[in-house]
Design a protein that fits this description.
This protein has 403 residues and is an alpha/beta fold. The chain folds into 2 domains: 176 residues, Phosphoglycerate kinase, N-terminal domain (Rossmann fold, 3-Layer(aba) Sandwich), CATH 3.40.50.1260; 193 residues, Phosphoglycerate kinase, N-terminal domain (Rossmann fold). The protein is 34% helix and 17% strand. The protein contains 16 helices and 17 strands. Strands 5-6-4-1-7-8 form a 6-stranded parallel sheet. A 6-stranded parallel sheet has the order 11-10-9-15-16-17, with helices on both faces. Strands 13-12-14 form a 3-stranded antiparallel sheet. The longest helix is centred in the middle third of the chain and has 14 residues. It is elongated and about 70 Å long. The protein binds adenosine monophosphate (AMP). The site of adenosine monophosphate has 15 residues, from α10 and β14.
Length: 403
């Protein structure tokens, strides 16, 4: 792997006795408990960085842990404090974790200077500063000030050129943590010289932000299966009726271009749909061929014929790359296409790479997470990897350490 990793922390860069700024992706859902306190609703992202944190602590480092949570838009928001996340981290690590209600400044410097090997200090939400997303060099300098080394374990944020992602490692010697290392290795393995045939499956609501992915996967894969709302845009681009279905009007021209291209993967679009008039489990639904989606009906899931075709292609694949649900999987019965695709991938002995928050949730709902080769923690980051884009957060971690 061309990105520097924890294993490069040797010699002058050995973690023992150093203060290390660890950028994690603890952007977890928060909720209120019975007593009204804000608590972590899903700790998986915190758990995913424990190997990195433990590795550094075992070697005598002191950790300054930083993340964003939610979208505070550059302003402090008590509802999006990192405090409850620090508390959950303490429980998971089984050791005390300090919290400082700011991410830069005198208090952070003072608390950091008192850190002993094995101590952990969590900073306040990085996005309380608008300089984080703007990649302000001043903020990057202030974040880097209390630390001697930088570790990026925030795969889900590596596609963002933010102060804590690309700014700080421009100042401190930096490496990728274990989570980032595992994620990058999985994508590299599946995308460079993959076992063929490669079946790429794309779904979700909008195609606007997935055009680059469609184009790249068309070059890489042997079969490109498109489901979910984005397939409706392709259907409309072919001049077929879509009723009241979701259509990304701005992407119609690109959809036409992609349909006209003959090179690369064979394109497979739904041949039938599950339609309903509204997204509700109690709404009457019908199974119809693709050209019978009439207003006010909406295509909300791929139909049984399409599922059969998609599952058949999955069964002939050696590698499956999947991003985006096949329908409105949050609301049964429109979850069937997504769940059947998930189960088919899990049951077939192929290399499977699943990315995107919704897709990972769908894999969990289908109870197949353990039977997939790799389920990415990153949404946008995994989409960019599938698009062949070099993530800025990784690009800064290449070359010789300290060079
Ligand atoms: P994305 O963020 O683009 O991956 O979209 C994920 C969302 O797409 C999920 O919340 C799904 O409910 C939604 N979705 C998938 N298929 C459809 C569809 N046919 N119509 C409307 N929404 C859909």
């Amino acid at each position: 792997m061309d990105v520097r990793t924890l294993d490069d922390l040797v010699g002058d860069f050995a973690p023992g006795g150093k203060r290390i700024f660890v950028r994690v992706d603890f952007n977890v859902p928060l909720e209120r408990d019975a007593a009204g306190a804000i608590v972590v609703a899903d700790e998986r992202r915190i758990a995913a960085s424990l190997p990195t944190l433990r590795w550094l602590l075992e070697r005598g480092a002191a950790l300054i842990v930083a993340s964003h949570v939610g979208r505070p838009e550059g302003r402090p928001d008590p509802a999006l404090s990192m405090k409850p996340i620090a508390d959950r981290l303490a429980a998971l690590l089984g050791r005390p974790v300090g919290f400082v209600p700011s991410s830069i400044g005198e208090t952070v410097l003072a608390r950091s200077s008192r850190l002993q090997p094995g101590d952990v200090l969590v900073l306040e939400n990085l996005r309380f500063h608008d300089g984080e997303e703007a990649c302000d060099p001043e903020l990057a300098r202030a974040l880097a000030a209390p630390a001697e080394l930088y570790v990026n374990d925030a795969f889900g944020t590596c596609h963002r050129a933010h102060a804590s992602v690309t700014g700080v490692p421009g100042i401190l010697p930096g490496v990728a943590g274990r989570l980032v290392e595992v994620e990058v290795a999985a994508f590299k393995k599946a995308m460079h010289e993959p076992a063929r045939p490669v079946v790429a499956i794309l779904g979700g609501a909008k195609i606007g932000d997935k055009i680059g992915t469609i184009r790249h996967l068309r070059k890489l894969a042997d079969h490109l299966l498109i489901g979910g709302g984005m397939a409706c845009t392709f259907q409309r681009a072919q001049g077929l009726p879509v009723g009241a279905s979701l259509v990304d009007i701005a992407a119609l021209d690109v959809a036409r271009e992609i349909l006209a291209e003959r090179d690369g993967a064979q394109l497979h679009l739904p041949t039938d749909w599950i339609i309903a008039k509204e997204i509700s489990s109690s709404a009457p639904y019908q199974i119809v061929p693709l050209d019978e989606v009439a207003d006010p009906w909406r295509a909300l899931d791929i139909g049984p014929r399409t599922i059969n075709e998609f599952v058949g292609l999955i069964k002939e694949s050696a590698t499956v790359l999947w991003n985006g649900p096949m329908g409105v999987f949050e609301t049964p019965p429109f979850d069937r296409g997504t769940l059947e695709v998930a189960v088919a991938i899990a049951e077939h002995p192929c290399v499977s790479l699943v990315g995107g928050g919704d897709t990972a949730r769908a894999a969990k709902k289908a109870r197949v997470v353990d039977r997939l080769t790799h389920v990415s923690t990153g949404g946008g980051a995994s989409l960019d990897m599938l698009s062949g884009i070099d993530l800025p957060g990784l690009a800064v971690l290449r070359g010789r350490l300290g060079a």
